[in-house]
Amino acid sequence: AAADILRAGVDLQEAEADLTTDTRVLDEARRARIKAERDLAIQAIQSNKLSTDDQKAQAILLENKIAEARLRKINIDELQRVAEEGAANTAADRELLEASLSLVTNRQQRADLELQIIDLKFKELDDALRAQLAQAEIAGDLETQARLNRQLADNEVKRNIERAGSERDNESPLQRFRREVGDVGNNINDELEKVQVDGLNALNDGL
Predict the structure, then answer these.
(1) Which residue, 21, 27, 153, is CA-closest to 80?
(2) Helix (H, G, I), strand (E, B) or coil at 174
């Protein structure tokens, strides 16, 4: 009777899931089916009077591992789907900003748009890497996790470099003047040596 009630509950959940296109609801129904099938199999194993306790324990362990693997597959598929949906939305946002960029004539607005585009570009890359990282964590793949974490760190460095380049390209005349003055101050020794070399060259030319 308990098994029949369990089957009926899962059947009802799956029937309700069939009425929606929400993939999360469908995934939950799939998970419920897997867990119910595992529980029913374990009940059958435990009620088998011909098996020893050790045999029952081994069979139950196997059923749990099978269920875990099937659940892990659903989780990986779900992560991949979410990543693809997120990437599509981010790409659409980035493309809209890129289209708007050609219409902007204000320097500051253009600078702001370019920074947003850079951020969205790296968000696309990072979201894809994080989806792979989540899959690697589910699978327990430590080597892949380390590689993906390095790529995420590298992307952050690249993003900051691109942002700095964009900010420099869109400097106002005063901002550019202040930076160039600062550059001279940062390289004052080189500037002094240049003066000395120019003087020596002039002296040699006069000899």
Answers:
(1) 27
(2) helix
Q: For residues 14 and 3, give the distance between their C-alpha atoms in angstroms, rounded to a whole number.
A: 17
The answer to whether residues 35 and 67 touch, using CB atoms and an 8 Å cutoff, is: yes
* pLDDT on residue 23: 79
Which amino acid is residue 165, in one-letter code? G
Q: Distance between CA atoms of 82 and 96, rounded to whole angstroms?
A: 21
Check: CB of residue 166 under 8 Å from CB of residue 114: yes
- Distance, CA of 207 to CA of 192 (rounded, Å): 23
Judge contact between 30 and 38, C-beta under 8 A.
no
* 175 CB-near residues (< 8 Å, 6+ apart): none
pLDDT at 75: 85
Two tokens, residue 176: 């550019």
CA dist., res. 168 & res. 183, Å (int): 13
- CA pair distance 46, 36, nearest whole angstrom: 15
For 167-184, how does the pLDDT look when each residue is reduced to its tens digit (9 = 90+)? 888 878 777 777 676 666
CA atoms of 154 and 161, how far apart (whole Å): 11
4-8, 23-27, 108-112: segment of lowest average pLDDT: 4-8
Radius of gyration of the chain measured on its C-alpha atoms: 31
Model pLDDT for residues 109-158, shown as the tens digit of each residue: 889 999 999 999 999 899 888 888 888 887 788 999 999 999 999 999 99
